[in-house]
């Protein structure tokens, strides 16, 4: 069974602000459901996998194609697959690393 696009997004992209509560991590993420239909939602993240790195995003660039998708002038937005999180070229700080990460990265890098 494959994960939905939304589950993939939640696992791979950690957006905006991270909140810790009793080991349940929640983040606020922007989801584009269709042209002009952008929602910021609080979602729970699944536990970090051993080979993953969790990054608290400090900034994210929105490119012209993201704007065109929002305005309904682009076929790039795959709304037929479910909502997606626009933006790329992001930067932030490492919050947590999985136990199998061997890159030398650590919290606060």
Description:
This protein has 109 residues and is mainly β. The protein has a domain at 5-48 and 62-89. Helix content is 15%, strand content 39%. The chain has helices at residues 5-12, 64-71; strands at 18-21, 24-34, 37-44, 53-61, 88-97. The strands form 2 sheets. It has a 3-stranded antiparallel β-sheet with strand order 1-2-3, with no helix packed on it. A two-stranded antiparallel sheet has the order 4-5. Strand 1 and strand 2 (24-34) form a beta hairpin. The longest helix has 8 residues, at 5-12. It is elongated. Residues 11-22 have low confidence and may be disordered.
Keywords, separated by commas or semicolons:
mainly beta, 2 helices, three-stranded antiparallel β-sheet, 15% helix, single chain, 109 residues, two-stranded antiparallel sheet
Quick overview of this protein structure:
The protein is mostly beta strands and 109 residues long.
What are the secondary-structure elements, in order, as H or E? Answer: HEEEEHE
What is the makeup of the main sheet?
3 strands, antiparallel
Global outline: elongated
Order of strands in the sheet with most strands: 1-2-3
Strand portion? 35-45%
First-to-last CA distance = 35 Å
Mean pLDDT: 77
Assembly state = single chain
The chain-level structural class is mainly beta
Rg calculated over all Cα atoms: 15 Å
Q: Helicity level, as a percent range? A: 10-25%
Task: Please report the total strand number as a whole number.
Answer: 5
- Total helices: the number is 2
Low-pLDDT stretches are: 11-22
């Amino acid at each position: 069974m494959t994960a939905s696009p939304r589950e993939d997004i939640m696992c791979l992209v950690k957006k905006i602000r991270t909140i810790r509560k009793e080991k349940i991590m929640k983040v606020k993420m922007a989801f584009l459901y269709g042209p002009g239909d952008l929602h910021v939602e609080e979602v729970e993240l699944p536990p970090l996998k051993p080979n993953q790195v969790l990054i608290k995003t400090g900034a994210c660039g929105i490119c012209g194609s993201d704007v065109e998708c929002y305005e309904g002038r682009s076929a790039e937005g795959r709304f037929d697959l479910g909502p997606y999180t626009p933006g790329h070229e992001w930067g932030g700080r490492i919050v947590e690393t999985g136990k199998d990460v061997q890159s030398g990265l650590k919290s606060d890098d």
